[in-house]
Specification:
Radius of gyration: 25 Å
Strand order of the largest sheet: 1-8-7-2-5-3-4
Structural class: alpha/beta
Helix content: 40-55%
Length: about 260
């Protein structure tokens, strides 16, 4: 099924968008490896598998598999067809434990496991702090090398909320594998997890050229949402005041309109 979907979708995708790729030689021909990528667009999960000869399995939020409507069914069919794994993020501990279990299963089969350390798409094209729970724990528990990946300009092709993509060339830079065997057996040390994650994010930053922001992308999205709501409320209040000023006559105007008020 993966091969069929790769030909049916990956082939036309490469012809239409002609993505450029650097560092393909850093992907091992066989054996387990973790691809840790920045996340700019929904289309990231399409372009990276399209340019690789080997199957790569990403975890995907469960909503991609349950969204109603034609678009939802097509999305679910694609993710299922290419072997992507749904993760329910509604639990108390979120996607962390599910991502770890899924990642280890994939790596134990000697396959490529893809993960977005930021945990969600960047809201503004900048690179945000990586979450240590999934990536670092999978890397240390499995011993698999971590290969940093940078997606370039995919957010310009299909920004969040846009259905029709823009025809332009995205880029993919694949870095050299990172070995964290020196931390083997320390996957429960939060300082080690932070160090591993930060090292990976630094390599992604060098590959992508993105500005790095030392907060989580989820927090940035929340801040942007709150700022947008505040701006909308301020505009509504300003408009209401302007409308009130137009409809309420001044005392002087009201006096002039009354008959018999002028001196004779």
């Amino acid at each position: 099924m993966y091969g069929t979907m790769k030909v049916a979708i990956g082939g036309p995708l490469k012809v239409a968008f002609r993505p450029w790729v650097e560092g393909l030689e850093n992907i091992p021909a066989e054996g387990p490896a973790i691809l840790a990528s920045n996340h700019l667009s929904f289309s990231d999960s399409f372009f990276l598998p399209a340019v690789l000869d080997r199957k790569v399995t990403f975890i995907a939020k469960a909503e991609y598999f349950t969204t109603p409507g034609v678009k939802g069914r097509l999305t679910a069919a694609f993710f299922k067809g290419v072997g992507q794994l749904p993760v329910d993020r509604s639990g108390a501990r979120g996607a962390g434990e599910a991502a770890i279990r899924s990642g280890l299963d994939v790596l134990e089969r000697g396959e490529l496991f893809g993960i977005y350390p930021e945990g969600t798409r960047s809201p503004d094209g900048r690179l945000y702090r990586g979450k240590p729970g999934g990536l670092a724990r999978v890397a240390l528990a499995s011993g698999a090398p971590v290969i940093p990946v940078a997606m370039i300009d995919t957010e310009k092709i299909q920004p969040p909320g846009k259905v029709m993509p823009k025809l332009m060339r995205p880029g993919i830079r694949i870095g050299e594998p990172l070995d964290f065997s020196r931390y083997q057996g320390m996957e429960h040390d939060r300082f080690v997890l932070r160090a591993v994650t930060d090292e990976v994010m630094y390599e992604i930053m060098k590959l992508s050229g993105q500005e790095y922001v030392d907060i989580y992308a989820t927090a940035a999205k929340r801040q942007l949402s709150e700022a947008a709501k505040a701006e909308k409320a301020a505009k509504a209040e300003k408009a209401a005041r302007a409308a009130a000023a137009k409809t309420e006559p001044t005392a002087a105007t009201a006096g002039k309109d009354k008959p018999g008020t002028s001196a004779s």
